[in-house]
Amino acid sequence: MTAEAADLRVTNARVVTPSGTIDGGVAAKDGKIVAVGTEANLPDAEEEIDAEGNYLVPGFIDPHVHWGLSRYEFDYHEGLAHDFETETRGAVHGGVTSVVNFLLQPDPYLPDMDFFRSVGAENSYIDFAYHAIVHQDHHVEEIEELAEEGIRSFKVFFNWYKHASPELGIDHSDAGRTYRVLDKVSEMPHGIVMFHAENEDLAYELRQDLMEEGRNDLEAWTEASPNVAEAMQIEQIAMLTEFTDSRSYIVHMSTGEGVDICERYQEKGVNVHAETLPAFLSHTKHDTELGTWGKISPPLRGEASKKRLWEGIRTGVVDYVGTDHCPHKVEFKEKGEGKHGDMWDAIPGDNNGIEYLLPVMMSEGVNKNRISMERCVEVCSTNNAKRWGLYPRKGALAEGSDADMVIVDLDKSAVVDDDFYHTMEPGYSTFHGQELTGLPTHTIVGGEVVVEDGELLVEKGGRDYLPRYDEGVPSS
Ligand SMILES: [Zn+2]
Description:
The chain is α/β, with parallel strands linked by helices. It has two domains: 6-57 and 400-456, Urease, subunit C, domain 1 (Roll), CATH 2.30.40; 59-388, Alpha-Beta Barrel (TIM Barrel), CATH 3.20.20. It has helices at 76-94, 113-123, 137-148, 175-185, 200-212, 218-223, 227-244, 256-267, 278-282, 303-315, 330-333, 353-366, 373-387; strands spanning 6-17, 20-29, 32-37, 45-50, 55-58, 60-65, 96-103, 127-133, 153-157, 192-196, 247-250, 271-276, 318-321, 405-415, 435-445, 448-452, 455-456. Strands 1, 2, 3, 4, 5, 14, 15, 16 and 17 form a nine-stranded mixed sheet that branches. Strands 6-7-8-9-10-11-12-13 form an eight-stranded parallel sheet, sandwiched between helices. Bound molecules: zinc ion.
């Protein structure tokens, strides 16, 4: 028994710790975890929450979101301020307590670093870090200095240039730029290059054929970018990663072929790892009722890929789950033509991922016995913290870590309706209409209860930018 009283303790929980799951609780003081153990070994605290035998897990970490996409209404910087508030409000309702957001602008990033730090600190409900999308030569030149500012992950769009979203202004990156970026980060502690692996040249040709045939269905969107379009890119990325002895990360991997390729290179000791999305673990191209809401990029696949992705998570080939949360209002997503409007013109991307991440992984993963609770916590929290240099400050229920934690009731369920989400646009996602079982009851950020039984208890702001340095993220 520690003499000094803590601020908060959660008791009567199944606590998922780095060394296993225990019956007991966690105590927090000044935003940090000060004790993990059986109730008798926890200090007294000013506030106590009885978890009623439910799981207590480290807050989930979403490594893949695109704040600022509400740029259809705002300019990019205004959009960032807007989305940090609205989308991280959804995050805390959903049990996500840290986020790594992709910076995306044609201008250099360095001159705006003060803004990027303050816009999150002032508007977010959770701590945040950044990846930078490098799609201009001047972005590549900024890499070393961005590392000094705490950004050490850089995303390359191999192949977005003919894509259906010219408004994003992403320029094409060829194998030369890919080589250059991989080479630059190879010596950088925590340096990672992230890839959207989809061969756009192939997809462009197929898309023309399908449009000429008059196809306008969800499966046509998949046929326009078949499994081989992802596989051939991953193969090339893995080869270049081996050649440069660097580290790469395939974002939103969608195919079973991708799992096979990553496994083959991982067995050779190449540092190529992959993230998948809840959508690819739950939906297929046959879910035609999704209409344009199911238009994501890369597209939904068949049953075989879905099965192989789950298998990859179980065997350790697929080590990360993110969401690719793209906050668009439904009228922009559908371009005003309704859910079953023009498939080719609709904006690609799913909405509300940061809020459905935990419920879907509980519902489809843990509750369906596809993965254990411990593996779920690894791929949605611990591994994400480790890959992005945030561990052990984030991603662990351990003494000294930030007291970011979530109580999960595996029996609690809800239908995803217009009231389910707490973001800018609760009206749609690929999970709309579905019942999800396994929901958070309490979300705790920095030792403070921010959401209890669906009620938001705090104001936005006062959160930390998480810079990743050589030695990782500094403690708060
Ligand atoms: Zn993305």
